[in-house]
Structure formats: structure tokens, C-alpha cells
Amino acid sequence: MAVARGKGLRAILSSALLTLPALAFVLALCVYLVHGWNWKSHAALTALFTTTTAGYFFTVWITHLTFLSGTADRSAVVAQNSYGLNTLSLYVVGVMLSALGAMNDITVTQASVVETVADSQPSLPFRRLYALNMQVGGDHVGSMVTVLVLGYAAGALPLTLLLRADQSTPLWVTLNGEAMFAELAGLLIALIMMLIAVSLSTVLAAWWLGQRRNRQRLPEGDPDSRPVMLQV
After folding, report:
1. What is the pLDDT of residue 29?
2. Most buried of 2, 32, 152, 172 (most Cβ within 10 A)?
3. Domains of the chain, CATH where assigned
4. Stretch 13-35: mean pLDDT
5. Are 110 and 205 in contact (CB under 8 A)?
């Protein structure tokens, strides 16, 4: 059992070498095509890829810690038998994809909010700018939490009805089974990733905007920005 789990874990980690660059390419394509090549897209994409990478390895650690096999999803088992795919890898990638839609929306929105607040109050320091935008980010996270919970509930509803079709199985056994735990773990991981993405995108956007404004205030080649030599 331990040998099999070790092989499965190595398969997941090796698949990260292919999965993460593919996700990075898809994220860059979506963000830049929709929002253009600008500092807001850079900040959002950096936050997205950083959070996705951290979330990928965190999900791998959770699956190893809780002994998830990924076989609770029958379609994953069929894919494994037909194409030789690893069920745990499919589960990890599925969790990442389920969170990316909400994270993409919230990171770009946070960058836009940072720019709007900074334009309305140019004298705000970095910490104050971050705090004000995180107030908006908190409300946005609350809305996205509802979206994720309803999405996972809709996906788990047929599974719950199927599991409860067998009345001989106690309810606590059903709730503690891998199928139900995998759904709850995926939801929790997606929420954690979204919280990290909001904070990181806000920090990056505020820092990036501050750097851009500093360059605009002291443009290169401006005689007024050069040090003045006093003549004696």
C-alpha cells in the first residue's frame, strides 16, 4: 500500500512539470487576450500563477495526508483504465480548474479597484491603499464563496443522492467517505486559494502602481530630476 501510494505521489509531482506550465500558458492567454498587455494584467497573472502553484502542491500534500485515492469519481476511474491517467492527478487538476475561474475574476477586479482608488486619492500611502482595497476584496471574496459553494453543491448533489440510495449505509459513514470528503476538501482548498489570490493581487497592484507613478514623477532624462551642482 505504501509503495503504491509512493508511486502515485511521484506520478503527481512529475505531472506538475507538465501541468503547471500548461496552466500558466492558458492563464496568460486568457488574461492578456481579454484585458490586454498592461500592468493590471501583469499583477493579476502573477498573483494567479503564484497562487495556482502553491495550491497545486498544497492539494498534493492534502491528498497524501488524508490518503485520498481519487477513485471516488467513476469518470476518473474510467479515464485511468482507458488512457492510463492517474486518478489523483485528475483530482488535483480538477480542484485547480474549479478555482481558477473565480480567481481570474477577482484578481483582475482587485487590480482595477486599486487603480480607481489611487486615482481618486493620489496621496494615499501603500499601507492605506492596501487596506482600503482589501475592504472591497473582502466583499468580493464573500460573493465568490457563495458561487463556489453553490457550484460544488450542484456537483455533489447527484453523488449525495446516489450514496443515500443505499439505506443500509449509515449517514455518518456516507459523510466520512472519500467521495464526500473529496468534494469538501476541494471546496476548502479553492476558498484558501481565492483568499491568497485576493491579498497577493492587491499587494502587487498597489506596489506596481506606486512604482509606475514614481517613474512618471521623475522621468528619465528630465533636467529637473537630475541633481543640481552648486557652483562656488
Report:
1. 93
2. 152
3. 2-213 (1.20.1640)
4. 87
5. yes
Q: What is the mean pLDDT of residues 198-203?
A: 94
Residues 124-145 as b/e (b if ≥16 CB within 10 A, e otherwise) read: beeeebbebbbebbeebbeebb
Which pLDDT score is estimated for 17?
81
- pLDDT attached to residue 96: 92
Is the model's pLDDT at 39 over the cut of 50? yes
Whole-number Å distance between alpha carbons of 28 and 89: 22
Torsion angles phi and psi, residue 69, rounded to 5: -110, -20
Alpha carbon distance 138, 140 (integer Å): 5
Q: What is the DSSP string of the chain?
A: -HHHHHHHHHHHHHHHHHHHHHHHHHHHHHHHHHH-SSHHHHHHHHHHHHHHHHHHHHHHHHHHHHT--STTSHHHHHHHHHH---HHHHHHHHHHHHHHHHHHHHHHHHHHHHHHHHHH-TT--HHHHHHHHHHHHHHHHHHHHHHHHHHHHHHHHHHHHHHTT-TTS-HHHHHTSHHHHHHHHHHHHHHHHHHHHHHHHHHHHHHHHHHHHHHHHS-TT-GGGSPPPPP-
Burial tier of 83 (Cβ tally within 10 Å: 0-12, 13-18, 19+):
exposed
What would the grid cell of residue 5 be? 501510494
- pTM for this structure? 0.81
- If one counts every other C-beta atom within 10 angstroms of the C-beta of residue 211, the result is 11
Nearest to 115 by CA among 210, 219, 46, 216: 210
186, 95 Cβ separation under 8 angstroms: yes
